[in-house]
Fold this protein.
Amino acid sequence: MTRGITNLAAGLISGTLCACGGAWKDAPYEGFKRLTFVRSIWVGILAGAVTVAFTDKFLLAAMAAGYLERCAVEGYKILRGQAPSKFFTGSRGHIEAKG
């Protein structure tokens, strides 16, 4: 029981940090999106629940939950196939990645 609570707390903290970082980074370009902010927190909690199967160490669970949260959210963006609105610059078209 304690292991599960520890890992869920680690997921909550990781998800909140990811949400705050994303809001700080993207809000000047896209505006603040409450749904996206809350989504990262919930995905972090879910990732914390997944880490119960692997560890009872708080730091390791937090790092793994943060990693899983970013993989899940960014993977969803890739599968969705839409570029974020910050890449569109209005009448000039959009910015394309070179590589």
